[in-house]
Amino acid sequence: xxxxxxxxxxxxxxxxxxxxxxxxxxxxxxxxxxxxxxxxxxxxxxxxxxxxxxxxxxxxxxxxxxxxxxxxxxxxxxxxxxxxxxxxxxxxxxxxxxxxxxxxxxxxxxxxxxxxxxxxxxxxxxxxxxxxxxxxxxxxxxxxxxxxxxxxxxxxxxxxxxxxxxxxxxxxxxxxxxxxxxxxxxxxxxxxxxxxxxxxxxxxxxxxxxxxxxxxxxxxxxxxxxxxxxxxxxxxxxxxxxxxxxxxxxxxxxxxxxxxxxxxxxxxxxxxxxxxxxxxxxxxxxxxxxxxxxxxxxxxxxxxxxxxxxxxxxxxxx
Length: 318
Prior knowledge:
- The chain has helices spanning about 5-10, 75-80, 120-125, 135-150, 155-160, 220-235, 280-290, 290-295, 305-315; strands at about 35-45, 50-55, 60-70, 85-90, 95-100, 110-115, 130-135, 170-175, 180-185, 200-205, 245-250, 260-265, 275-280, 300-305.
- Helices cover about 25% and strands about 30% of the residues.
């Protein structure tokens, strides 16, 4: 299904709430990748400049994700002046080089999932994708029972809300139990440039799993997230609402209501029409019809190995 709880749990190498925080910015003396034994490449993308590798760390299954970090504008001058160039080709006004940057300008973001479960491995394995159209009845008869039968833990979300983990990363909080939320940077954003700005608003309420649960009762919550989220981002980062994409996923990555705030310049994963629903559209739809998302047919992508896809096939929906 979706990325389920792994979407953020993948960013942690320990599950214990007390051990989730390391010394940010400090060099690690215990590298989890130095002993990594490669089994296979799960997926790679030349366009996104990342690779997903399955293997073992000290006899435990692990997934390592390597991603080239963005080129930062404030480092351009140093990058051009201090790098070495190796000529590959020259023809008239055109020439190409291999640029060898200094180590501190040539970082690779590395995510380690260890111990990795079979779900983690399948999540990162390249799979065919199918578009499913789910009616309100399909949700109640197929999707909801499937979600309920799976062990999609959101304990890491509760840890954030209870300040047991990542408290230092929260940039804004409204503590109201009904309309409040916390706002913090998504791990996809390294917070070094605004072009790929990405923050997540996680609601304090624990009775709303996804878009399907929303009714007009939740309009104060949604309008509060939009208003205070946009205001915080403008004050803290100088990015106005007109340069933000604010949306919900369906299906979501994890089943606790959250809202994505990304830069309009950033083609964020999952921001396509088959999965993203603009918060402004959601608010207008609920203002017009309180049961809009209870009854409306919604399309979303499912990978070939997703158990929910099998449910839809068995029900003759594909």
